[in-house]
Amino acid sequence: MKIETYIFGGVSVFLFVIAAIYGVWSGDPTGITALIISGGFCGLIASYFGFIARRIDARPEDRGDGEIAEGAGEIGFFSPHSYWPFALGVSAFITAIATSFWAGPIMAIGVVCILVSTGGLLFEYYIGQNRT
Fold first, then answer.
1. Residue 58: DSSP 8-state
2. Is the distance from CB of 118 to CB of 124 less than 8 angstroms?
3. Phi and psi at residue 40, to the nearest 5°
4. What is the pLDDT along the chain (132 residues), one digit of tens a residue?
5. Positive or negative, the Cα torsion across 4, 8, 10, 11?
6. N or C: which end of the chain has fewer CB within 10 A?
7. What whole-number distance in Å separates Cα of residue 97 and Cα of residue 51?
8. How does DSSP assign 59-97, residue by residue?
């Protein structure tokens, strides 16, 4: 996780430097704000990865003597067939369209659909026929 920390930390510093240069040259508050917020978000991700890197053992890609074969094996569990990501995407699409047209009732329906889809995705293997 140290590599990820350095990457996001470097992008964060780059965005802050660019925000300062952009602010001097243009004076556009919208662009400056966007660059500062982007740098802050990258900084948050870098600090999270740095926190996690201190808590776990060094991975092969974090060590200088790491071999490719050391990273082989099971990476994690990925659902082979799930309709919940599609439902979540459609729900987010409906909510985004309703927000752009400022249609309150449809926005509320979209938010409820997002919550239901998120719950279904999270608890897919804890209830129903796929229960493990």
1. P
2. no
3. -65, -40
4. 788 999 999 999 999 999 999 999 998 999 999 999 999 999 999 999 999 988 888 887 778 888 888 878 887 777 788 899 999 999 999 999 999 999 999 999 999 999 999 999 998 888 777 676
5. positive
6. C
7. 37
8. PGGGSTT--GGGG-S------SS-SHHHHHHHHHHHHHH
